[in-house]
Each structure stands twice: as C-alpha cells, then as structure tokens.
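Illustration 12: 3-5 exoribonuclease.
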Amino acid sequence: MPVVRTPGELLGSASAFSPGEGVYQKGGDLRASAVGIEKVSPPPNNRASMRSGISWLSYFQWGPVFVPDDLLLSLSLLVCKLRVMPLRFQGLPVLSILRAAQSRAAVARVGSLVLGQVTAVNRMLVEVAVLAVDGHVLPEPYKGAIRAQDVRETIVENFDIAECFQPSDVVRAEVLSADGRVYLLGTAADDLGVLCADSKAGGALQPVSALLMRCSLTGQLERRKVARPPGV
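Figure caption equivalent — predicted structure in token form:
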C-alpha cells in the first residue's frame, strides 16, 4: 500500500538512503520536503573508481661486487610493478517523494482518513491543511478543522487544546463532516492524532505514550494527542 508522506516527516537515516526528489537531509536524518508517495529506488549504476593497488613482483639479481676490502657483497634489487585496478562500489538506495498528479482528484467522505498539517491552534479549534485523503495525495490542500470536543473520546475539565496540537504537527484524522467548504475532522480513536512533530528545541518528537512525545535533541517531554503507531 502506498505510504503518503508530508513535509518535515522523518523518512529514514542518511546512512541507509540517498536523498532524491522531494527529500532533504537534516543532520543524519532524511525528511520529506513535499506531500507525496514515498518511493525507494535501486542505487544508481555502479561507478568504477580507479584506485591504485600494488602488486609486488620481487626477484633477486645476484652479482659479485669488488670493494677495496676484497669483500664480496651481494646486491639485491627489488623491483615493484604498479598495477592499477578498477574497484567498484555499491551506492545507497534513493529515497524520493512522488508528488500528486495534477489531474488526480480525491473525494473525502464521512469516515475517510486524512493526513494533514496543523496551520493554527485556537482556544477551541485546530486548523488543518488536509494533504491526502484515503492514501491519495491532493493536488491542492483542503481546509480542515478539529473542534475541541472531537479531539478525544472524553474531554476533561480545564482541557487545553494546545497540549494536543501545535502548528506544523502532522496529523492523521477521520472526516466527521464533508458537506461544507471545511472538513470537520476528529482524532478520538487511539490511532488518530499527531504522527510526527518538531519540538520547541527543533528536534524530532518521538512517541512515548498517548499523551507525551520526547525531543530527540534534549530528551524533554512535550504533550500531544499522539496517534498510536501501527501494530502497537
């Protein structure tokens, strides 16, 4: 099944892949710079690297050499032959993001799953740019919104929506209403919510629990409504 990636999402390690179209390197990580389908391509054609290797060919040529002391010395001549050998090396697979075809259109319906990026967080509402619907990347983002009452199954007293989402977070959500110009989205299910995010320090946030994510740089915890990883 195609994997849809969103801008800033962690894709893999630079030690395992080479960045292709739609991918950039940040430190030792590769991240998506565009919305699209992840694609891994074989390494480019092997390139021949001319590297000098030395093949030693040794032989000894003996001959008498007379010196004033009438001592017989042996002269040893070492001849080395330099042979240039082409060595081939294997490159890394290329990780790319395939952008959506401009002619493709996806229609969201109630129950559809979407991927989006948080653009603004208000006291009772989260604004989302919907980037993909049911695995289909959209040519242009749609407007979406998550209301405070649709974030979790139950809302506790003194609920703060800013402890669930922050601008630039990448989220997975369910379409609750698709009748108007703005999709109403929900993240109540365990596998819905924040997929990836950046910390206040600029590091990648890694899921710790349903409520917390840890900064890869500082180790500090930040609160989010975390989407449960697949298979967990």
